[in-house]
């Protein structure tokens, strides 16, 4: 059964995905700023009791906390981590002086950097499968291919969180040993932590099994993946921007990760994938 280290999984995509994986028999170590969130969760509590859900207090913005989570997830070196699931995300804020902003502005970027740079290769020579969740439409080229009605929203209200997710993709591709496309802009000043490339290089680890999932506009709708219509896929998956896909529910992204991606890693793993209805 899978041994999973989950960060940002106290709610939304990470939470829904974790429930599916736990039901399949996985063991999941959760890094949580507030462990009481899951300690009091009726759906998670039985898995805590059985030892399949393990809660570690820590902040993904703190490299030492993330490293401690790796140690717990590896059972102090006795068991390798099979999957690292990062679904860290924040909510935009608004003020008359700043407009729409994120605080901190680089939550996702710094978290992904900490996750990848603290992987304990000495106790696990083969890196795990890495899954991170980003967003569609982050670069100018991707923005041009968005559905028309999404362009104003992505260019204004979601600009700040998307700058952060662009930074996380920059870090992820570097860690996977892949070139950042020349047509892609570099993340704006303040997003990339100082010396981030050196931080990655010091670890000396390359993550070839790294997958970036880029959902369309996320909703709180029901999961369609469990009951697809006859002869029709519940959602679209493509390495290209899905120009006719406006939304996708968080529960369906969780379905894709747990029921499709991890079940057919040979087909989907190690890629950047757009998912939309």
UniProtKB/TrEMBL annotation:
Belongs to the avfA family. PANTHER family: FLAVIN REDUCTASE (NADPH). This is NAD(P)-binding domain-containing protein. InterPro entries: NAD(P)-bd_dom_sf, Polyketide_Oxido-like. One of its GO terms (molecular function) is riboflavin reductase (NADPH) activity. Transmembrane segments: none annotated.
